[in-house]
Design brief:
Radius of gyration: 29 Å
Number of strands: 13
CATH architecture of the largest domain: 3-Layer(aba) Sandwich
Strand order of the largest sheet: 7-9-10-11-8-12-13
Strand content: 5-15%
CATH topology of the largest domain: Rossmann fold
Structural class: alpha/beta
Distance between the termini: 88 Å
CATH class of the largest domain: Alpha Beta
Number of domains: 4
Largest sheet: 7 strands, mixed
Number of helices: 19
Oligomer: single chain
């Protein structure tokens, strides 16, 4: 028995006469209810604005009356000898704002307990007016599970050569998780037409479109893994070990995520994208600005909807970039009537309580704008400080981007004392774009460690003793970084001209 049928069976037996089912698949929800009523010998009536009232389960006998209150009146007029009768009102949220409709629905719900008549509103959103809030219970029609998706896949891929097996089947189901039954059916069919077999690539294509339509999340499918990202040795090892072991540690030992703090341009965002490729998980990017709505309560509702979608897409990696800017008004004084604070509170609660296999990577450039409760234990597995790359990391980054932009390995490197990975890439790109040597291209690059030297130093001081080191195992220490930089500078001075004599 499906979760919806199980839940509705309990509510009908307990005589909850007002039920609001939140569903993006009304046809499947009605089919579930029809199966329940058939098995229990209950009566089922349906109404929608296109076909009117259907009191027999056969769409061809639907009445021509499309009056939103007519169906409620018809339910009250039925004599059923106390046999439960369910009236399913499809997309009724479009009419529930009318005072007349609200009054008739409220009367039908309260009187329904006497004769076991049930009002069931089926809608993709929950919009209960104050008069009906205490009369209705809300039920979610969950999206299909992996087992249901596999059953649907078997009904479409009927040939042996079309049906994926083993790891390929798991990859297809991973790609389909989070889709509705209708979307999954379309994705499987498209893959069959395009490839002659069900493969995950076509499913990811439709899944990306589905997320774009929601406007809340984006799906990032990076082709680069950790080998394309220089440095961050300890951070890579920590996250990869946690995610690859998560399937073997039981439901209580799921990885939660990491918070990355660093100056701009040190590779935080690139790390998030390459992490998904490395561990075989999709990467969702949450743009907090897209959650903002113009109506009262809309921003909070869109935040909850985005988190629901994230849960349904598990297992996945979620990236929230520059989170201190996204929730800049969370500590008050933003002039938005507390909207940002409530959104931030919803995110904090979800970070602490979610049980889905979702790994969250948040990045920040300014820790002073984040409340202390954000980084506490059990919201993240670790808080890492990503410092400016050291000499070995810079050499690896130079080698990688010289290969990307076709620059000879014999060409002399510019002085890069305080450069980030982004600045090294910019130098290589400009050299290739303008067809000039790297030393000449470097004249157009001003390091962020120079333009924002004070803020970078403040970050290092704050991270000392508070954050894990992204490069080496253990707690970050600015003094260790400074000593390494000074010793490297001494070695370079000695190699160029020997020690100076005063």
């Amino acid at each position: 028995m499906s979760a919806l049928r199980q839940r509705m069976s309990e509510l009908v037996r307990a005589c909850f006469t007002g039920v609001w089912i939140k569903s993006y698949e009304p046809d499947d929800a009605i089919a579930d209810l029809a199966q329940l009523c058939h098995a229990e010998n209950w009566s089922l009536m349906t109404w929608d604005i296109a076909q009117g009232l259907n009191a027999s389960g056969d769409a061809t006998t639907a009445s021509e009356s499309v009056d939103p209150t007519g169906a409620v009146k018809a339910l009250s007029a039925i004599s059923n000898d106390d046999t439960p009768t369910l009236l399913v009102l499809r997309s009724y949220h479009r009419f529930i704002g009318s005072g007349e409709v609200v009054a008739k629905v409220a009367k039908a719900v309260t009187q329904g307990k006497l004769h076991r008549k049930f009002i069931v509103i089926l809608s993709p959103v929950v919009q209960l007016p104050p008069e009906l809030e205490r009369l209705f219970v809300v039920v979610d029609h969950e999206q299909p599970t992996r087992a249901e998706l596999q059953e649907l896949l078997g009904s479409i891929a009927t040939d042996v050569n079309e049906m994926p097996m083993g790891q390929q089947l798991e990859a297809v189901l991973d790609a389909a998780v989070g889709l509705t039954r209708y979307e999954a059916e379309n994705a499987f069919s498209l893959s069959l037409v395009r490839n002659g077999a069900v493969q995950p690539e076509a499913i990811w294509e439709l899944k990306t479109q589905a997320l774009k339509k929601s406007g809340l999340l984006n799906l990032c499918r990076s082709e680069s893994d950790f080998s394309s990202l220089g440095g961050l040795t300890a951070l890579k090892a920590f996250t990869k070990r946690a995610l690859l072991r998560s399937g073997n540690t039981g439901s209580l030992a799921k990885p939660r995520g990491v918070l990355l703090l660093s100056p701009p341009g040190c590779g935080k965002s690139e790390f998030c994208k390459s992490l998904g490729k490395e561990v075989g998980r999709p990467v969702l990017t949450l743009d907090v600005g897209s959650l903002m709505g113009s109506l009262v309560g809309q921003s909070e509702e869109r935040t909850r909807e985005a988190l629901r979608i994230i849960d349904s897409m598990a297992p996945c990696v979620v990236m929230v970039d520059e989170i201190e800017k996204a929730f800049a008004g969370a500590s008050g004084g933003s002039g938005d009537s507390g909207v940002t604070s409530r959104m931030f509170g919803t995110l904090l609660t979800w970070l602490n309580d979610h049980t889905s296999d979702v790994f969250v990577v948040c990045t920040a450039n300014d820790v002073s704008r984040l409340p202390p409760e954000f980084s506490r234990a059990e919201r993240f597995d670790g808080v890492f400080f990503v410092d400016l790359p050291g000499r070995p990391q810079k050499d690896a980054i130079w080698s990688m981007y010289r290969g990307v932009y076709g620059i000879s390995s014999d060409e002399k490197l510019p002085v890069d004392e305080q450069w980030t990975g982004a600045e090294i890439r910019s130098c290589c790109r400009l050299a290739a774009l303008l067809d000039i040597p790297l030393n000449q291209a470097a004249q157009n690059v001003v390091p962020v460690a120079v333009t924002s030297a004070e803020s970078v130093q403040r970050l290092r001081e704050w991270a000392t003793g508070r954050c894990l080191d992204a490069e080496a195992s253990g707690i970050y220490s600015a003094s260790r970084t400074d000593k390494a930089a000074n010793s490297a500078a001494v070695r370079r001075r000695i190699s160029r001209g020997g020690p100076s004599v005063n």
